UniProtKB/TrEMBL annotation:
Record's protein name: Cytochrome c domain-containing protein
Keywords noted in UniProt: Heme, Iron, Metal-binding
Lineage: Bacteria, Pseudomonadati, Pseudomonadota, Gammaproteobacteria, Vibrionales
Domain Cytochrome c: residue ranges: 57-158, 182-267
PROSITE patterns: CYTC
Length: 308
């Protein structure tokens, strides 16, 4: 309980602290699980060693964008209520929360999602397009200042590490297949007990001064139907390692799968590759573990047909 209250305090204060020079804040880097033998996590440098001059300024702007991506809301490059740090926790520095220091050293890489070799810049654009729901399917250009700054920040947190696309702590938890098929009703129970206190009973998160302090999990301000997080397996792995916030690895695998299915069985912004018809879009892009195009467990409407 003390731990919980502490976290709430941090979360509520964060946006206020962030306004000015939050780049001096430090984050816990370790994951919430015990490390395996010989496993170590890369440790980003501390802010004292920030380079001076243009590069240092670019890194700071990148960090600021990462923490408060809503700066780009007016431009339409962000078209929901999310910030990068909502999923890449602790400014993209925390192990098992898809940290930037493990991602930066993993590109170029071939991706089945767009069937070509992606640079790190392409990957940043991808999260704008899907997780941040960029307006009209238009993320910032690869050579835009925003992408350059996020790139500089990611480079900086990776500095001193090794180039390896499989660093310990990359991505989310390794979670086994569930013993029982994920179930909506069980997921709802987990949700109301373990998640609603922060993300609200209706999944819409909570705002202070029009800024989300607890991000929405579905609805118009959440990630869209094309985002990695809409997949049940990806969300289960994220949730297992990172949620409830500050209590990663406390849920059973089954609970993580059930609640992932629950949150991803609600409407959210439309898939940016939408072909005008849910069935065709599902056929083309959703041959994976998601609920797009399936009947809603609540009212049987086809998920995606009432997307925002
Ligand atoms: C809704 C949650 C969410 C938000 C918000 C989000 N991302 Fe992601 N991001 C993901 C998920 C999930 C993946 C892994 C997706 C996959 O592989 O299917 C990912 C992957 C990435 C990767 C590649 C990681 C790797 O190890 O290869 C980068 C880089 C990245 N995101 C950057 C960003 C940036 C920058 C922002 C903000 C502009 C952002 N993301 C916002 C969920 C999110
Ligand atoms: C103590 C409050 C708290 C609890 C309880 C909690 N979360 Fe979160 N959750 C957060 C915060 C805050 C973030 C964003 C992290 C950040 O910005 O540092 C987040 C982020 C997320 C995200 C990624 C961002 C998004 O909006 O999609 C998902 C998914 C998520 N939580 C699911 C859950 C689930 C499922 C549970 C219950 C098992 C849960 N959370 C319990 C506070 C909480």
């Amino acid at each position: 309980m003390i731990m919980n209250r502490y976290i709430l305090y941090i979360v509520l204060l964060a946006p206020m602290v962030m306004a000015e020079d939050a780049y001096t804040e430090l984050h816990e880097i370790g994951s919430m699980r015990d490390l395996k033998d010989n496993e170590t996590h890369h440790q980003p440098q501390d802010w004292q060693s920030l380079p001076e001059g243009e590069l240092g300024e670019s890194i700071k702007r990148g960090y600021s964008l990462f923490m408060n991506t809503q700066q780009l809301h007016k431009s339409g490059k962000v078209n929901n209520g999310m910030n990068c740090t909502n999923c890449h926790i602790g400014g993209g520095q925390v192990a098992d929360a898809a940290p930037m220091w493990a991602a930066y050293v993993s590109y170029p890489a071939y991706r089945g999602k767009n069937k070509r070799v992606n640079t790190f810049g392409d990957r940043l654009q991808g999260c704008f397009l899907y997780s941040m729901n960029a307006k009209d399917g238009k993320p910032p250009e690869v050579l835009s200042q925003e992408i350059k700054d996020l790139n500089a920040y990611s480079y900086w947190v990776s500095f001193g590490g090794v180039v390896d696309n499989n660093l310990p702590g990359r991505g989310f938890a390794n979670i086994d297949k569930p013993k029982q098929e994920p179930d909506f009703a069980r997921g709802e129970e987990v949700y109301q007990k373990q998640c609603a206190v922060c993300h609200a009973e209706n999944g819409q998160g909570r705002q202070v001064a029009e800024r989300y302090v607890f991000p929405p999990l579905w609805g118009k301000d959440s990630y869209n139907w094309g985002a990695g997080m809409h997949r049940i397996n990806t969300a289960a792995a994220f949730i297992k390692a990172n949620m409830p916030l500050g209590q990663g690895y406390s849920l059973s695998d089954q609970d993580a799968w059930d609640v992932a299915l629950y949150i991803n069985s609600h409407e959210r912004p439309q898939e940016p590759r939408f072909k005008g018809n849910v069935e065709q879009t599902k056929e083309a892009f959703h041959q994976h573990n998601g609920t797009y195009g399936l009947p809603s467990p609540l009212d049987k409407h086809i998920l995606g047909s009432q997307a925002y």
